[in-house]
Task: structure prediction
Amino acid sequence: RLLDAHGTFDRWDAQVALDPAALDRAQIRLEIDAASINTRVDRRDNHLRSPDFFEVAKYPTITFVSKSIQRTSATAGTIVGDLTMHGVTKELAVPVTMVFYENGQGRFRGTFALNRKEWGITGDSRLNPIADVVEVQFNMALRAPR
Result:
């Protein structure tokens, strides 16, 4: 039986270049500090940082760099980019919904699934079995610099 464990990455940075009149040409670069994994259980977080999983001493950063954005409606689209995690880079399509964007401020969110083993995160635990396919959610607020 697989158990759900919810968590966040507490330290990350994003560089976003977008023109409100041409959101499909936006450029996005996201950098996540892999060691900032936080499931609210220290023992589990330390195990996730270990060579069994994220191996943060060797692979400290998870990055996503957009290559294209395809709009599917006025408020939705798919961001295609390269996700680099655990030393493996693979193209990933990420669905995104624009909650709002006006006057240089906006909020975007999405949910997608990825198979962690495709990025070389192959560790398993007999005590706490972990699914190969994990669900990733994001909710990001942006504000243009003043």
Summary: The longest strand covers residues 88-102. The CA atoms of residues 78 and 95 lie 4 Å apart. The radius of gyration is 16 Å.
